[in-house]
Amino acid sequence: MRKIKLGIFFAITVLMVLGLSSVAYARVGQIGFFGGITEGVALPLTTETLLTQPNTGNAGNFTARDLVYKEMLWLAGGMPVEFEGLIDIIVANGRGRGASEDAGTRQVRYIVRPSAMTADGVSLTRNVLFDVNWRRVGGQIIETYNVASWVETQVINGQTFTLDFSRSSHQISVIRDITPGVTYYRGDVSMQAIFANVDGPVTHYVIGEIYGFESAWAATETHRLNGIVAAGDWQMQYQVVPSVAVSKELQYSENEPTLISFFGNYREITHNQSGLNFVINVMPNIFYGQPTMGRVTISNFNRFEQLIAPNLTVFMGHPAFQDVRRLYAMEIITTPPSHFPLNQAIHRAEFMKMLALAIKLPVDDALLNPPAPRGNRPVQVNLVFPDLWPNRGDYAYLRAINDAGIAIGRGDGLFHPDLPITREEAYVITLRSLGLSNLGLDIPITPFVDNYAINAWAVNDINAATRIGLIAPDENGNLYPQEFLTRAQAAALINRLLEYMRHELLRDYTENIVNFMN
Questions:
Q1: DSSP character at residue 166
Q2: How far is CA 303 from CA 66, 69, 249, 268, 401, in A?
Q3: Average pLDDT along the chain
Q4: Residue 271 backbone phi and psi in degrees, to 5
Q5: Could you give the angle at which helices 395-403 and 348-358 cross, rounded to 10 degrees?
Q6: H or E segment to which residue 322 belongs
Q7: Alpha helix (H) ranges present in 373-517?
Q8: Can you tell me the distance from the alpha carbon of 506 to that of 220, in angstroms, rounded to the nearest whole number?
Q9: H or E stretch covering 239
Q10: What whole-number distance in Å separates Cα of residue 249 and Cα of residue 232?
């Protein structure tokens, strides 16, 4: 990295930027770790995101109160009973996980209580506190939850079950892989809970797996848990798969009144969906003939925000009109329409800024708004590339793209921000924003007729992008990797990326896991 002293009209401090979500603590465990479901933590709307630019680390603390909560209770003789109540999730002492931090601790508390919707004769009160230790290993974070205190009472049809904390344990281990646009995670749960009852102790064992991801456009968490409940004269075994999915959609609505100053606008909708499937594998003899499977859901809730449908008459009739208008509405394209000719090649910097805005890649505020110089004193400027200077309006986004490992120049020591981007380059950096390069490692060549024209460094990412449906051959089987990407094609590619994040990832982490259960 070069260090140059110059008398220039800006001062800048360069910080390494990691793509850490500002609500990451709110995601893992948003349905708890006891086989229940919540309504889920809502994604921020566009205006909320623009007003609260994510920082370079994690703010750490988080509170979600009065979330609707449902759980199947298994202690009363081996037949499940549905509980509906409320849950509070409180994260404390989370100092943050900035780029300079390699380890830390925090606490997470879950408080479950009955609500007005709780059925008569059924009650669950739970207050559990986890101490969470975390450490960074490369781009991944390993978290271990150890139960520090746990108070729980279940009342089911007149029977009271009180947790014996001295004989109980609960541990969760989670690993997160932090990529520029998506944080993926998986984990394991192990629980032994012993409850006192007038008829003798009841032991509840649970082991299972956690899968989830977080992004600006969708997030989900699914658990696959196997449980055993045992008392003196009976035993049962079950599997439960609780899941929550949150996503953001964009819908265009045309205005019905004739005498109105604009034709229509977009509506951004955030959806939350939660469901719990269970299957009983072994049940006490007394319950033979009863249903052995079921499903519990929490009603969807939506949040709305109105977004503009800009007047883009200059693009009317173009095949990419809808793609372009959607990106303008979401403020992913910020270039004035008169300077955005759709059939001309898009420059590398222009495409990379669009990509950074699309995945909500955190940028350094100091690079967006560098402080004014004091006098004519020379300042020290850190240049990653000699042709990429901080006086560019898009510099903060290009630095974020580079620091996240999405794009690293063209191999000659230069970034070439104002040269056209090739289709090959655009496909590779779009795929890298998802962190899914590993999906192409096992395929030595691409399926395209013009595979010979693809550079060796791009083969893996091109294969991965093809595998997930981000790109596809034309009618003759070609990719044309060395042709320049037009602005119209760039808009279509970014929209396909957003649709993949909204839908395909959700299906893989929810429907595929639930169907595997069956």
A1: G
A2: 17, 19, 10, 8, 30
A3: 86
A4: -105, 145
A5: 70
A6: helix 321-329
A7: 395-403, 423-434, 459-467, 487-499, 505-509, 511-517
A8: 7
A9: strand 235-254
A10: 52
Single out the residue of 351, 365, 480, 489 nearest to residue 421, CA to CA: 351
Q: Which residue has the higher pLDDT, 97 or 218?
A: 218
Residue showing tokens 């590398």: 348
Q: What is the dihedral of CA 408, 409, 413, 414, to 10 degrees?
A: -140
- pLDDT (0 to 100) of residue 442: 78
Q: Going by C-beta distance under 8 Å and a sequence separation of 6 or more, which residues neighbour residue 80?
A: 72, 73, 74, 238, 278, 280, 294
Burial 136-166 (b: 16+ CB within 10 A, else e): beeeebebebebeebebebbbeeeebebebe
- Structure token digits, residue 336: 């004035």
Predicted confidence (pLDDT) per residue in 165-195, tens digit = 999 999 999 999 999 999 999 999 999 999 9
Q: Which helix (H) or strand (E) holds 246?
A: strand 235-254
In terms of pTM, does the model score above 0.85? Answer: yes
**Cβ proximity of 130 and 145 under 8 Å:** yes
pLDDT, average across residues 232-261: 89
What is residue 507's predicted lDDT score, i.e. its pLDDT? Answer: 87
422 versus 19: the higher-pLDDT residue is: 422
Say if residue 236's pLDDT is above 60.
yes
- Encoding tokens for residue 16? 């390494």
One-letter amino acid identity for 312?
L
Q: Note the pLDDT of residue 21.
A: 34
- For residue 104, which amino acid is it? G
